[in-house]
Amino acid sequence: MSAILGSAAAVFIGTGYIALDTAFDWTGHFEADSNGPNNRNIGLYVLYQLIPLICVVVFFVLEAILVLRVLGERKPMLYLLAAALLFAIGQIFQYVISKYICNGTHGKIDGALFETLFTLLSVVMIWVFWSSITEDDWPMPPTGGAYT
């Protein structure tokens, strides 16, 4: 548990420092390239976009190994693949289709609405996947006058 908290804190602190240094130009090291439309910061991009993407891919691979090799099941992989597909659709809405939605609605909505919806559906499919590979052992109240 401490490894999870430590790595999350390291990414949070690193991303926060680079974002604040880029915004307020404390050290001058992380200057944003503000020449026209190329306003970007590579360090911030790596910590904010690539590390979560790498974590998602590693999660998918490890879960696939767990299901296929350890458990010897195939059906839960359909749920995991559906979750990956829904997540990918959400990212397509966020990064590709968003500007067309925003322009078409005159800035009232953008792709973030649909990205959030598809990410939520992806999380639901992860829960269905998890529920299908674990044994359902929910505490049930005894029948016949449990609340007397």
Walkthrough of the structure:
- With 148 residues, the protein is mostly helical.
- 72% of the residues lie in helices and 0% in strands.
- It is built from four helices and no strands.
- The radius of gyration is 21 Å and the shape is extended.
- The mean pLDDT is 83.
What labels describe this entry?
4 helices; extended; mainly alpha; 148 residues; single chain
The Cα radius of gyration reads 21 Å
Which structural class do you get from the secondary structure elements?
A: mainly alpha
Series of H and E elements: HHHH
Strand portion, in percent? under 5%
Distance between the termini: 41 Å
Helicity, in percent?
A: over 70%
Low-pLDDT windows of residues: none
Please tally the β strands and state the result. Answer: 0
Give a short synopsis of this structure.
This protein has 148 residues and is mostly helical. It has helices at 2-24, 42-71, 75-104, 111-133. The two termini are 41 Å apart.
Topology of this protein?
Elements: H1 2-24, H2 42-71, H3 75-104, H4 111-133
Helix pairs in contact: 1-2, 2-3, 3-4
